[in-house]
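Assess this one:

_____
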Amino acid sequence: MFLGSQNKLIVISLIFFLMLLTIPQMIFAQRTSTKLLGITVEGNKTADATIIQINSGLTPGKEINSDDIQKAIKNLWSLHLFSDIDIILDKEVVGGAYLTIRVKEFPRLEKIELLGNKKIKKDDIDKELDFYRGQVLSSYQINKSVRKIKKLYHEKGYLLVQVTPETFDSEKEGKVILRLKIKEGNKVQIKEINFFGNTNFTDGKLRKQMKETKEDRWWRGADFKKDKYKEDLDLIVQFYRNEGFRDAEVVKDSVYYDDKMKDLFIDITVLEGERYYIGDITWEGNELFPEERLASLLGFEAGDAYNFEKIQKAIAERLGSLYYDTGYIYSRVDPKEKPVAKDTVNIHFVITEGDPVKVNLVHIGGNTKTKEKVIRRELRIAPGEVFSKAALERSQREVWVLNYFSDVKIDYWPVDDDKIDLKFTVEEKSTDMANMSAGWSERDKVIGSIGVAMNNLFGNGQRLSFDWNFGRYYRSFQISFTEPWLMDTPTLAGFSFYDTNRDSRWIGYRQRSSGGSIRLGRRFRWPDNYFRGDWIYRIDRTELWDFVDSIVAANPNNIVNEDWPLISSSITQIISRNSLNRPEFPTEGSEVSLSMEYAGGIMGGNVGFYKYIMSASWFTPAIWKFVLYNHATAGFINGWTKDSKIPYLEYFFLGGEGLSRSTPLRGYDDPLAGYATSAGGRVMLKYTTEIRFPIIPNPTMFGLIFAEAGNTWMNVTDTDPFSLRRSLGVGARIFMPMIGIIGFDYGVHSKNQVF
C-alpha cells in the first residue's frame, strides 16, 4: 500500500511532533539523573510563579530524573488551578539542564446566572452552591454545582430536573460567567407502593415499616428520596427478621414513572422464607455468672419466635450491662446461630469475659467556682476500685443534684489493659439568687423586699440565705445557714432565725411570730444509700390579737379567747428517700418522706402536740418527652391530752398557691388569706397528678396539665377519702438565673370557680 505525498507529509509531521513530546522523557530515560540548573514558569496569570515552582517539588541545584518530572506534574494537578500542565526541556548543557513549567490556568468566576428556576429561589441555590467571585472555576467545580442543584430539587420532589451548564467569557480578562439552565420538570410524587411475594403480611403492614417513603395522600406529600428509600428497604427486612423470618430479603425493586412523568410507582419483591423458632440456647465461656442468671436476662426462651432485635437488645443492654457493671468492660458476647431444622435455629452464646478493669485516676474539669472537693466527695467511684457502671451513673446523679451545674459529662479512656481513667466535666451555672424591689401601694404605702440566697457559698457547697420583706402592714425577716458536709463527713448542720409581723388589715388579726431552729442531718447506707435522716429543734413564739369582727364572730379554734402568746418547743425527725435524677426538673425517680414532730412535754413551752406528715412523689417517663408526675400527701396532728393546746397555724389548711402556711391546692382560695375564718383540720389528704412536657431547653421551661384533689377534716372519724375538693388546670415553669423557678398555674375547681 502506497501513501500519497500529502499523506506522507502528515505522517512525518505527526512522528516529528511525538518526538518533540518525548524528548525530555528520552533524555532522562537514557540518563539515570541530571542536575537541574534552572527552572522558569510560563503561562501563569494569577498564580505566583514561585508558589508554582515550590509546589512542583523541583529545586535548582538538585539531581532529578523522570520520576521527579512525573511527580511534579502530579503535584501541580492536585492544586486544581490549571487546565493544562507541561514540563519542557528548555536546554541541556554540560553539567545539567534547564526546564520550563508551562501552565494554562482555569478561568476565574465573575458571576453565576440562573435560568428557569421557579420552584426554588435563587438565594437558596446560591447558598447551596457556596461559590464566590474570583474563585477558580474548573470542570470539576461546574459538575459539582450541577450535582448540588439536582440534589436540592430532588429533595423537593423534582426528580426529573435537568441542569445544563454553560460558560461565557466576561469583559474582564481571565473571568467567565457561569450560566446554569434549569429545566425543573414536574414534581414527582409516589403514587403507589406495591409488594410482591408477601404472603404472611399485607402490603399495608409492610408500607407502615417504611418511615420516609410513603404514598401520596391528601394530608401529606410523598417525595421520593433515594437515600431514605434504601434505608426503608432495610427496615422492611429488619421487620421480617424481628417477626421470625431470619432469611427474608428484598430480591428486587423497581422505581418507574407514569406516561406523564408526574407520578412515581415502586414495586418491591420480597422473599420471605420460613418463620423460625428458637431451639436450644447454650452458653460457652461464662465463668462469672451461671447459665441460669444469663438466661433470665435474655427476654426470650426456647420455643419463642425468632426475633433479631430481641437478640441484639439482650446482648447490648442486658448481658452487656451485666458484665459492664461489674467492671468487665471489654467483655464480648457473640451469638452463633445454627439452623437445625426447617423452622428451628439454635443459639449458642460465646462469651469472652476478659479481666476486670480498675479505675486509675478520676479527673475533675470545668469547675471554675466550685471547689474540687465539693464534687469529689459526691462521687461513688474512686481510684483503685473495680469499674462499675452503676457507681458511675450514681456519681453523675449525685453531682447533678447538687444543683450547681447545668451539665455533667463523663468520659473515660484506657490507661492499659486493666486500668482506665475517668473524667467528670461540669458546666457551672449561676446558683446565687438576689432580689431587691420597691413599690407603692394605696393600702400598704411603701412596700419592698431584699433577699439574697447563696447556694454555693465561696464554692464550698454551703448555703446562706437572707430575706426581708416590708410594707406598712407587713414585715418579715429570715436568715439561715446550712453546712452539708460538717467536718468533711456526710453530716448536715444548719440554723435559721425568723421574725414576722402582720397587721390586722392584712389577714384579719395582728400576728407576731419569731423563733429559730437548729438542724442536723445524716446520710444513711441502709436500707439503701438514697435514705437520709434529719432532726430539727424548733422554738416559736406566736401571738395573735386585734381581731376584726368577722374573725371574732367565727372564732376558729377559739383563737380569740386563747391565752396568747403560745410558745412551741418541738423536735422533728424526718426520714426521707430521694432518687430523683435532677433537682429542679426531674424526669424519673421518686421522693418519699415521713416527718414526725413532737412539741411540749419535756421539750417545754405551753403547747403540746404531735404531728405526722407523709409525702411521696413519683416521676415516670412517658411517650416522647412527656413525664408523668404523681404526688400524695397525708397529715395528722393531735394534742397529747384533751386540754393540750395546738397553735392555730399548726392545723392543716388547704388551698391557695402556697405563699402562706397553707398547703397549696390550685383552683381554691387560700383559707389564711384576707379575712378568711377557716378552722383548718387535724387530718389532711391531698393527691396531685401532672403531665409535664418540655417547651424550651435553655432557659429550661416546661408546661404541665394538672389534676388535684384534697381536703381536711377535724377528726379521724370524719375523714372521707372520697369526699375531696377537685380541680383541673394548666401551668408552666421556667428557671431564670439569679431569680430561680417562676411558675404560673390556671385552675378551675369542681364548681367551675376560677382562682
Notes: Residues 37 and 60 are 5 Å apart (CA to CA). Residues 1-5, 20-31 have pLDDT under 50 and may be disordered. The domain at 277-352 is CATH 3.10.20.310 (Ubiquitin-like (UB roll)).
